[in-house]
Write a structure and sequence with these properties.
about 210 residues; TIM Barrel; two-stranded antiparallel ribbon
Length: about 210
């Protein structure tokens, strides 16, 4: 069954809400964003999170020491959404000597061919999974916009893919059928007025199960 990640949780109310639905993953943004949480807040949020849900930290070109600090609070996935290169990833990999976590690398889709995206993915040989999201000139993610899924439908044949960008109850089934990802990642698609919406989360999950 396809995995689900609900991203952009900001407060204990968000955590209590997702605890009712038990998605596989939830995301906490630790980079500059309207959804950013502090490291101190992260500790409290994870403490309230159901242990059956894996906590994902979203970072943009973060200091490795900052990432290690968050791993101590219980993150199980480190999602890199910036310009991190293979050298950076090798440094991050050293933390696996002391912590059990996965590394996800975001690939921002613009007008690359599928072959070009595959070449970029394969340059990150030590990454566990890859997140495909639409590239923006103003931010590193969270735009709520999708890309042309059909142009990249074969990538999941070779790599474990998380599909992100503009997913909502109306289009998520098409995204799944086209890309066939390991996991789908939703944030603004289950929000109303920038707040997580119970009904939208319920509708979203009903469509994919």
């Amino acid at each position: 069954m396809i995995k689900v990640k609900i991203c952009g949780l900001r407060n204990v109310d968000d955590v209590k809400l997702v605890n009712e639905f038990l998605p596989d993953y939830v995301g906490f943004v630790l980079a500059e964003s309207k959804r950013k949480v502090s490291v101190e807040s992260l500790q409290k949020l994870i403490a309230n999170l159901d242990t059956r849900i894996s906590a994902v930290g979203v970072f943009v070109d973060a200091d490795i020491q900052l990432i290690e600090k968050t791993l101590k609070h219980g993150l199980r996935v480190i999602q890199l959404h910036g310009n991190e290169d293979p050298i950076y990833l090798r440094q991050l990999l050293l933390l696996k000597n002391n912590y059990d976590f996965e590394i996800w690398k975001a690939i921002r889709i613009d007008h690359q061919t599928e072959k070009e995206v595959l070449e970029e993915i394969e340059s990150y040989e030590i990454t566990d999974r890859f997140l495909l999201d639409k590239k923006s000139d103003t931010s590193y993610g969270g735009t709520g916009e999708s890309f042309q899924w059909a142009n990249y439908k074969n990538i999941s044949h070779k790599h474990s893919i998380i599909l992100a960008g503009g997913l909502n109850p109306e289009n998520v089934r098409k995204g799944i059928d086209t890309v066939k990802p390991y996991c789908i990642d939703v944030s603004s698609g289950v929000e109303t007025d920038n707040k997580k919406d119970r009904r939208k989360i319920e509708d979203f999950l009903q469509i994919i199960t």
